[in-house]
Amino acid sequence: MEAKVEVSDHQAVLRADGLSKSFGGLKAVQDVSFSVHAGEILAVIGPNGAGKTTLLNLLSGVYRPSTGRLHLLGRDMTRATMEERCHAGLGRAFQIVRPFGEMTVHENVTVGALFGKPGMRLPQARELAQSLLESTGLAAHADRPAHELTLLQDKRLEVARALATQPRLLLLDEVMAGLRPAEAQEAVALIRSVRRSGVSVLFIEHIMPVVRDLADRVVVMDQGQVMAEGTYREVTTNPLVVAAYLGTEPELGSGQPQSEQTGQVRA
Ligand SMILES: Nc1ncnc2c1ncn2[C@@H]1O[C@H](COP(=O)(O)OP(=O)(O)OP(=O)(O)O)[C@@H](O)[C@H]1O
Ligand SMILES: [Mg+2]
Questions:
Q1: What is the phi/psi pair of residue 112, to 5°?
Q2: Which residues make up the environment of ion ligand 2, defined by Cβ < 5 Å?
Q3: Hey, what domains does the chain have and what are their CATH numbers?
Q4: Which of 159, 190, 195, 203 could serve as 172's disulfide partner, Cβ 3.0–4.6 Å?
């Protein structure tokens, strides 16, 4: 069994060991360890304020951890800048979408492509942007200013911009928030197609049917710590998780944990 563990360790796209981050006296993330394997879709769930976004900020380099180490594709990136992490293969879509509103949709994605990889030339970046607009269903809107997009189109643009940096691992923070169920299904299909293109995905999500449909594995956070980890079935039948987050049988619920503030996108 030892050998099997080693193999999966070699395949880790990302490995976090004992990451912590405090804000004053508040331990927002406390001794968090987990891996994302090649080709895997990993969900991070947990109540509001559990530390999920802070964890993503530690992974993408917005914050430096007060303790712990982070490896990307086997390289120690604990102290690397956001740009270095991006160049090493980490792409990120934010919880609050902020496209450049006056620029066209195509220009927004081109900017992502230009900054994602050192040495990327403008024609090449434009071409990559065009192909990403096609795969994210935005090609018909390429020449419109980004501020004209609907919420669903905004989310698609955010994913396209992150993919334009050509990541090996895509980090998504509540990209489904505020979407209608049919739109969320489209977003699920988009994330599946991202994985098929060889990109691993780590996503934060409150909508449990989306977690069930997408995630190979689920990490549950509560009060800054990892409370449980396993398949969707394993974590949603874990009494600790039910008590801290789900409240009721998840299969029977509306798909929104009781702690969720429906439709609100928060900082
Ligand atoms: N920049 C900051 N300064 C001070 N406290 C912060 C900061 N960012 C987050 N926190 C606090 O850290 C804790 C974790 O917040 P975080 O945003 O990571 O939670 P979350 O799991 O993403 O929640 P949500 O599901 O509501 O998005 C919360 O108590 C929050 O108030
Ligand atoms: Mg959050």
A1: -55, -45
A2: 52-53
A3: 1-34+64-79 (no CATH), 81-198 (3.40.50.300), 208-256 (no CATH)
A4: 203
